[in-house]
TrEMBL record:
It comes from the Bacteria. This is Enoyl-CoA hydratase-related protein. The lineage of its organism: Bacteria, Bacillati, Bacillota, Clostridia, Eubacteriales. It holds the Pfam family ECH_1. It comes from Clostridium lapidicellarium.
Length: 77
């Protein structure tokens, strides 16, 4: 599989050359650092939990996380 095929399939986020790797990495890091850190935290935790919970439990966790994120959003508005 080529890198372009991997990108088209959604396996990788971005394809770049070696000489532009550091620049692309820093750009993505800055974008993530300015993003919704609470939502990122929940996403990371839920991804981890998919290995240990069934689908119904995962849906409940996702609903609870969405409620918490929305409440946090409202608080800071």
């Amino acid at each position: 599989m080529t890198t372009q095929e991997a990108k088209e399939l959604g396996i990788v986020y971005q394809v770049t050359t070696v000489d532009k790797l550091e620049e692309a990495t820093m750009k993505l890091a800055k974008k993530l650092a300015c993003g919704p850190s609470i939502a990122y935290s929940y996403m990371k935790d839920m991804l981890y939990q998919t290995s240990f919970n069934d689908f119904e439990e995962f849906l409940k966790m996702e609903t609870d996380a969405a409620k918490c994120i929305f409440q946090n959003f409202l608080y800071y508005q």
